[in-house]
Design brief:
The chain is α+β, with helices and mostly antiparallel strands and 276 residues long. The protein has 8 helices and 10 strands. It has a 5-stranded antiparallel beta sheet with strand order 4-2-1-3-5, covered by helices on one side. It is rod-shaped, with a radius of gyration of 33 Å.
Amino acid sequence: MSQSLSYVYLLRHASEPRFKIGKTNDIHQRILNLGGFSEFDIRNSYFLQFAKEKHALKTEKILHRLFNRWNLPTNEKERYIGDTEQFSIECFDRIIQYLGSNSDLIYDSKPISLSNFQFSINYENKHKEREIKRKLELERRWEKAFDTYNKTINLIDTQFQLLEKMELDKFIIENGLLKIETTDPDEIKTCLDIVGGLICNSIPFGIWGGHSFIFGATSEWDGNINKYVIEAEIHLDGISRDLIERKWKTEAWIELDTKFISILEKYLCSTTAPHP
């Protein structure tokens, strides 16, 4: 359509009982500025076409004045674009009837379904395409997160098994601490390497699940018991159940979290139960 044309539109909201009466020279861009095609019921919205912009402006003012009693009040705390031109859906059919019966009073323009407007793109297909891409990207990200989380848990399990096979004097999780004790100086070096690996492998938990796992470790000779002691902070909080419900909503994630907790519980001495 020619760029010289001007329009008055009656744009119905997709989910709320209201519609907007406005004027524009570019309906496509105006809809985008107001929130996008998904915000509105395009099939049940209408527009009027005018050769002169001043005719569109006059028609908009006529409609605003005639149907002023249905004009919705603005909320000063939550202002938004076009909020002074919002009308109750109660008068929508009456306006369409008025426009159809009085075209001679509004420069011979009649209401046309907005679904018949020649937008520069097919808005329905474009919107569906964006939604499909968004969902595919979200699924791809969560699949990657799941794979990272699963591999990390398996690595942590392997590292714990290495510590268990070393026959250390002490290897337990007690009161929020991973505790290792040994009298062998070579063993303590190996243990520090393994605990360092645990620290590195726990990083994805903060990224994907909100786990607070191992933050750091200290090693020193305890003269009172004549042993090397390693202590590392560890928390058995698991993935936030709220996060699972809001974002992942899959049994697979819950099973994976349970797997992680069960690995740690094998070495528990005294701790608070993670989740019911």
